[in-house]
Amino acid sequence: MPIESSSETLADLAARNPALIDAASGLRTGIRLVKPLGAGGMSTVFLAERFEPAAGGILSDETPRTLAVKVLQPSTAISLDRYGLKPIEFVMKEVVALQRLSALRPRPENVIDYYGAGELDITVRTRTMRLPWIAVELVDGGNAGLSLTDRVSGANAGVDPPRALRLVRAIARGLAAVHSVGVIHRDLKPE
Questions:
Q1: Whole-angstrom Cα distance, residue 55 to residue 29?
Q2: CA triplet 33, 183, 68: central angle to 5 degrees?
Q3: Which terminus of the chain has fewer Cβ atoms in its 10 Å neighbourhood, N or C?
Q4: For the chain, percent helix, then strand, then coil, each to nearest 5?
């Protein structure tokens, strides 16, 4: 049964807190969408909660109770289709990179954890589409804001040099981990 949305950005997809069923396998994921956290040019990210174990190993046993689920937007899937690319194959490149990062020991502290991926059947207005999703660690920015931009603009005098150095070093360690598994990150920005 498809989840319904009236928005091309899937902004209202979590309105009824739907439980996610993996469309390709028919397996219950054990997670439900709670609310949208943000939308980018290609995907929308949702706060999600795990309410039961996933069926068939579709999610890691390490999946926490609260996580983030990234869903490819319909417009991105349509664009990929135009170029003969399947949305799930496109997203699997990111999944492979996340799996490689998750396998690193010791675990990189500045890279999100990966828990699983699949596909959802979603009806946007009258069109039903199968869109890929990825379950990852929720990074909660707390009261200080979710992004570096929020934190810097919220500081009275900007960021002092020692803190700026710590931030830049943490970003560099995260990028080094990503590069170590053969991925070149081309979308680094304060947000």
A1: 6
A2: 10
A3: N
A4: 30, 30, 40
